[in-house]
Amino acid sequence: MAFALKKRGPSNFERAADGSMTLIEHIRELRTRLFRASLAIAVGLIGGFLLAQPAFNLLKQPYCRLPGMIVDGECQNFLLLAPTDGFVLKLKLALWIGLIIGAPVWLYQLWAFIAPGLHRNERKWAYVFVAIAAPLFAAGAVLAFLVVDKGLAFLLEAGVTGTDTQLEVTRYISFVTSMILLFGVAFEFPLTLLMLNFTGVVSARRLLSWWRAVVFICFAFAAIATPDPGPFGMTLLALCLSLLYFVAVGVAFLNDKRKGRGKEVYAGVGDDEVSPLEFDPEPVEAGQRVDASAPIAAPEPVAAPAPIERRYDDMT
Description:
By secondary structure, the chain is mainly α. The chain contains eleven helices and two strands; from the N terminus they run αααββαααααααα. It has helices at residues 12-17, 23-59, 61-64, 85-101, 103-114, 120-158, 169-186, 189-198, 204-209, 211-225, 231-259, and strands at residues 70-71, 74-75. α8 (189-198) runs parallel beside α11 (231-259). The model is unreliable at 1-7 (pLDDT under 50).
C-alpha cells in the first residue's frame, strides 16, 4: 500500500519573514505567543512558590550582616504590620522567581515574534547583544547584593534610632530588590553605546570626546536613582558605570579599526572647512575656428517611417 506524504506548508515564522501574513494573522500570532509566555510564567510561578523561602533567606543576609542583628547566634526577625504581609511577600517573591525561571520561554516567544521583521545581519547582532546583556545584568545584581548592607548600615547609623532596631519586612525586601534591579539595568548602559557604534550612528572618537559629560552623568544618575542616599552605593555604581563606559569606548575603537572608519577622504575635514582637492587638470588643445561666413549645408532628407503592421489581436 502506498502512502502519499502531505507536503508541509510554510510556517508562521516563514510567512511572517516573507511578508505574506495578513494583519489578522499577525494579531493571532501575537495572541499565541502571549499565551505561551504566560503559561511559562505560570509554571515558573509554581516553582517560585516552592523556592520563595530559600530566596527570602538569601535576601535576608544583608540585614543579618548589620551590627547588632545577631543575637545568640541567630538573626533577629523582621516586623510584620499585618497578618497577610508574610503571605503577600511570598507571592511577590514567587512571581520574581517565576519570571526568572520562565525567562528562556517568554524571551524566545518575544524573539520569535520580532525576528521575522529583521534582516539576517540584524538578527546576528541581536544574538550577540542579548548574550552580553544577561551577564551585565547579573554582574550589576551581584554588586548591588554585596553593597546593600553598607547602605543599610549608613542609613541606620545616620538615623535617630541607631542600628539596634528591627525593620519592616515588606519595605526591606522592596529596598533590596530595587537596588538589585537598578544596578542590573544601569549596567546595560555601555551596551547602548556599543549599539550606537556598531550601527554607525556614533564613532568611537566621538564617544571618547564625551567622557567628561558621561562621568558627570554617571555620578548624577547614581545620586538620584539609588534608593540608598549614602555614599557607598552611589559612588560604587558611578565608578562601575564610568569603567564600563571606557571599556565600551575601547571596544568601539576596535570595531572602527576593523571597519576602517576614520580613513575616509574627508574624515579630517571639519563641517565648516573647505576640503582640499587633489586635482591636476590635463591641458586641453584649442579647437578649430568656425568660419561664420561659410554657407550652411542643407540638411539631409529624412525618410518617412515604415507603416506599422497591426495584428488581428491588436484591434479593439
